[in-house]
Amino acid sequence: MQTRYLLAYHVYLPDVATRYKSWMARIRKAGYDVEGFCITVDPPNNRCDWPELDKKWHRRDRKLMSLYEALAEKASNCHCMINLHGANLHPEFVSQLPTFNVFISNDDPESSDILSKPCAPAYDYCFTGNIACVQLYHSWGIKDVDFLPLGFFEEDHDPTLTEEDILGGDRHTDIAFVGECFSSWRSNRLDRIASAFPKGHYYGRGWPNGYISMKRLLSLYRDLKVGFNIHNSVGPVNRRTYALPANGVMQICDNRCRLGHLFKLSEEVIGVDSVDDMVEAARYYLAHDDERRRIAAAGWKRAINDYSELAVWKNLLGTIHEPMAGDSVLSEGRQASIWLRPSFDERLRYDLTRLKERGKKLMKKGLSAIGYSICAKAPEREESFPVEQAYLENPEEGPVNIEIKDAQVDGGDFFEWPNIVALNYAVASLVGPNAKKIIEMGGGTGAFAYEASVDPSRHVFSCELNVGAHEWAKKHRSRPNIDYLNRFPDEDADPYDLVVSIEVIEHIGDYFGFLATISKLAPRALLTTPNRHSKYTESPLTGPPRYEYHVREWTAGEFYWLLRGFYQEVTLYAMPNVFVPWCKKIDVESDMTPLIADCRKPYGR
Fold first, then answer.
1. Domain count for the chain
2. Based on the domain organization, do 224 and 298 belong to the same domain?
3. Rounded CA gap, 568 and 576, in Å?
4. CA–CA separation, 114 vs 327, rounded Å?
C-alpha cells in the first residue's frame, strides 16, 4: 500500500498557499500520494507563538478547534503528517493524531523558545533547516532530529539556465543582496557592505528600495554576478543559500564552517567569517571573472542535483523511512477525539493558573513602582574564606574520553554531550581565514577537526592520547586534510598557524607546563574551559570542581590573567546559549560559559 502524506502548511503571506499547492502538485506528479492542509486560522495570518497557542488550546478557541477537527479527519486517512513550518499545532493535539508526525522548523535559534522548543518533543521525528541547531534540539531531549536543507522551489530559479550560460553568458549586475535589513546587529553589517558597494542592488524590509517581486527577483538573479548571504546569527538557514547558486550566481555567505557541509568551499561557494572578508572576496572575484564563473557553475550543479524541491523531498522521506516503518502507532492507531471535549475542571484550573500568574506580575510591577522588589527566596550569603586558604583540586585522571562516552550511551544519553559539540563548532567559527596549519591538543573524537576541515585550504593535526577516542575519530570523522595523532607534537616541530585546545586545560594538573608548551607551537591559540562562576558549573569558590575529571576551574578573570602570563593579547568569548555555536565577547567579570580565549603574540616568539 502506498504511503499517504498529509502536508500541513502555514499561510503567512497571500502567495504562500499558491506556492505550496503548486509544489504539492509537482510532488504528486512525481508519484507520491500527498495532500495539503492549511493550518492557519483566517489565512493569511501570523503564526500563533507558543503563549498564544497554549492559551487558545486550553480555552478551546472555537476557530482553532474547528481547524483541528478538520485536520484530525484528514489525518485519519493518512499515514504521516508533516508540519512544514512547525507552527500552530499544539503538542497535546499532535500527540493524539493517528499518524507518524514530523516536525520541520527553520527559525531556530531566534524563535526557538516560542516555536520549536515547546512543540517539537511531541513529534515522532524532527527536522531543523538550520544545520547549526541540531544540538539545540538534542538539549531538549530529542534524539530523533536531523538537518533538512530548505532547498529551492521550482519557481525560485530559471529552469532554462545552462552551465554554458553561466560560463559564457553576459551578466551586468555586480552585487546584490535581497533580504531584510531591520535588526540592528544585522543592519550594521549590511550597511558596511552597502557602503563598500554603493552601486549594488539591495531589496527587502528596511532597505530604501523596499520589496522586490518574484518576477523581478528572477530577472535580477539571471543578470547577477555576486550575491551576498548574511544571517542574524548561526546558519545557514534561508532559501538564498540555495536560490543564489540555482540561478548561476556566485554566493558569498557567512557561517563558513557550517556552509562547508552544504557546498564545497572555494569550489561551489565562498564562505567567510566577517564582513571585511566578504567585501574583500567580492572585490577579488569581480576582478577575476573566470574564477567567479567556474565557482558559480559548480554551485549551480550542486544546487540542481542536491537541493531542488524533489531532491529535498526524497531526502526527507529517506531519513524517516526506517523510524516510520518501525513505529507501532501506525499499526495500533491513536485516538484523536478527547481534545474536543475539555472538562470544566480542566478549563477552571487553567484560568486560575493564569490569574495567579497575572496577579504576581501586577504585584511585582506595583511594588517596583514604589521602590520594592520581590525575591523568590532570600539571597544566599556568600561564604567567606580565609585569604590564605588554598584552592582544592581533584586528582588528575589522565586521558579518559571514549570510556566516558560509552558510559553515557549505556545510560541512555548522547554519545557526545550536545553542549560540547556546539562548543567545538563555535570554536571552529573563530579560526578565521589565515590559519591554514592547525594543531589541536586533546582532540577527543574529532568534533573540532571535522568541523574546521570543511575548508579544504586548512590542514588539521588532531592529537589525542586516549586510544579509544583516537581510533573512533579516525574511523568516523576522517578527511584527507586531517591527521589524527595518538601523541603530542614535539616543541621543535615546524611552526603551526594556530593551536586549539577545547575543554582540556581543566583536566591537567600541570597547566603552567601545558600553556608553556602550546605557546611555543603557534603564534595564536584558541583555548576553552568552563567558567566556575556560571550557573552551569557552580564550582565552589575554593574547589574542588564538582565534575570529578576536572582538576581545577577558573573564573573569567582568573583565566584571562593566567593566559596573559603567556600571551600579550587575550580576548575572551562565551556562548549566550551553550547549545548554539555562536560566540559573544565578554569581560573578566562575566559569568557566561564556556570561556573561549583567543590568545595572540606569545612571549618569547
1. 4
2. yes
3. 26
4. 28
> H helices within 392-454, ranges in order?
402-410, 418-428, 447-452
Provide the CA 345 distance to its chain's centre, in angstroms: 41
Q: The cell 574564606 sits on which residue?
A: 385
Residues 19 and 47 in one domain: yes
CA distances from 230 to 179, 241, 242, 252, 429 (A): 9, 9, 13, 9, 15
Report the distance separating Cα 53 and Cα 115, nearest Å.
10
Residue 17 to residue 20: CA distance in whole angstroms: 5
Which residue is associated with the grid cell 564582513?
275
Cβ–Cβ < 8 Å for 309, 153: yes
What does the pLDDT read at residue 534?
82
Domain check: are 251 and 316 in the same one? no
In tens, the pLDDT along 320-332 reads: 999 998 875 554 5
Range of the domain at 349: 343-369
- Per-residue pLDDT at 334 exceeds 80: no
pTM: 0.87
| CB of 38 closer than 8 Å to CB of 103 | no
- Same domain as 131, residue 181: no
Return the number of other C-beta atoms located less than 10 Å from residue 180's C-beta. Answer: 15
Most confident of 92-106, 182-196, 327-341: 92-106
Same domain, 475 and 450: yes
Residue 551 within any structural domain of the chain: yes
Q: Which three cell numbers stand for residue 154?
A: 521550482
Amino acid in the structure at residue 390: A
